[in-house]
Amino acid sequence: MNERHVALITAFHEALSHADFAAMERCYHPEVSFGDPIFQEVEGRERVMAMWRLLLGVRDRLHVTYGDVTADDFSGSAHRTARYTFAKTGREVVNEIDAQFRFDGDLIVRHHEEFDFKRWSKMALGRPAGLLFGWTPMWRKTIRDRALQELNQFRP
């Protein structure tokens, strides 16, 4: 167990729970990459932070709990529950997320998250779209394309 890296993952989640972008950014390496089922791959600290600003802007009343934080000298993991109102639909979402981290020095250089896309889609988008289409590759591509387009147009 690497206590510095456990503290880094903890600091990131504390900053996320308070939407403290400056503190989140201090956790990331300049060449950080981020991946998840929606954004897939985002490269570089500036772009990753823009993604977080965008995400937190479309969520209302974000409440984050996290646990199961582990880390060694090279990698770490944590489980997070994010509860929020998806602003575009006004629907309540409870997203269970498993995060993996890799470190370069004492900073996060790789951050990857996994969650159940179909479950998220059903909660965030509701019926019929999320329930009927949330599992289809075409629907996932549509959501991913929209997210990437929003990120490309986003200016904090």
From TrEMBL:
Record's InterPro entries?
NTF2-like_dom_sf, SnoaL-like
What highest taxon heads this organism's lineage?
Bacteria
Q: Does the keyword Disulfide bond apply?
A: no
Q: Name one GO molecular function term.
A: isomerase activity
Q: Which UniProt keywords apply?
A: Isomerase
The signal peptide, as residue positions, is: none
Cite a single Pfam family from the UniProt record.
Answer: SnoaL_2
Boundaries of every SnoaL-like domain copy = 10-111
Q: Write the protein's name.
A: Ketosteroid isomerase
Q: What is the lineage of its organism?
A: Bacteria, Bacillati, Actinomycetota, Actinomycetes, Streptosporangiales
